[in-house]
Design goal:
- 59% of the residues lie in helices and 8% in strands.
- The protein is an alpha+beta fold.
- A four-stranded mixed β-sheet has the order 3-2-6-5, with no helix packed on it. A two-stranded antiparallel sheet has the order 1-4.
- Helix 4 crosses helix 10.
- The longest helix is centred in the first third of the chain and has 41 residues.
Amino acid sequence: MSYSPDETAAQIFAEQTWLQGALLSGVGYGVVLALFWLCFRTLWKRIKVKDANHRRNVFFLLYSCVMFMLGSLFMGSNSDFTQLAYINQRNFPGGPAAFEEQMFSIGPDEIANVSFVLANWLADSLMVWRCILIYRDCGTSPWIVVAFPGLMLVASFALGVLFLLQISSPASSPYQVAGTSVNYTFPYFSLSLAINIIVTIMIVIRLLLFRRHIIRVLGPGHITDHTSIAAMIVESASLYSIFSLLFLIPFAANNPVSNVFLQALGEAQFIAPLLIIYREARGRGWLSSPSTMSSMSSKGTNSNAIRLGRFSDIVFATQHAQPTHRSSVSTTDIIIHEGTNAPDKGDETIAMTRQRTTDNSVHVDIEEVT
């Protein structure tokens, strides 16, 4: 004996995709909750010591709090909407799937929609801002590099407003439009995806070029943490781009599978920036990593100079010193100039050999060259 509802197989499949999307969204919110706590704890510790990045840490903390608040609103509203569709309004004509597709304008889902769009704007803005910072020392104006993504971001704001106005109408939703022939759902999500893909490609190219530069100058043993494949995925927020594709392709084909990833996409856009902020809070991101900041030439130095990262403990020894005598210098910078240009008259040329010791310090032998 079967207790299945008197609905077609297509209706039941659509209902399954909406419910599975809600469950997947709940899993994503668990990740958001964990990441927010990690970001908050780490950033709060750094803010209390008021280090050189104090203002940026405060900004990241406020940003994380706003994203977590929007993520909580999205999750709560989405859960309430799912409950209305499958329990309170179970006998809606066409079933729960029809309710989910047609009732985007009611209060609970409207909160989720506004939270989604606001979080999307914040996530895209963070990506463009970081792209500007990553390209700020590439030898050309960063504004030239990111002019196109910046214009796309402004267009995304406009399309986001039109999208919200459209789905706020009782007669319209992302799946059906009344009174106009333009459905802003696909253009809005496609533009957001395009921003992320373009910025992702730009950031990955910059990281790969930096990786090749480090290998050529210092050797493969000095590849920094942010040039690994996993780090590039995080730094470029590829997670959001992947979920955008998983939603847009079935949506364009009018396949109910898009219902699963529409809800999960909301959590993916919270996870991606929080992952970036957590890396920055731990000092492993592009903006806060000493190896990237110190590898760029400072003003007034040779353009070919390579500034090595800050070492926690550097031990210097000379040929005239006793073998057992070492003087420790806590946190220093070493500048090695590339090229074969002879030093100016009267300057000393120092040859240094760096060697890792067993106590995780760096042993540097200094020899004066006459």
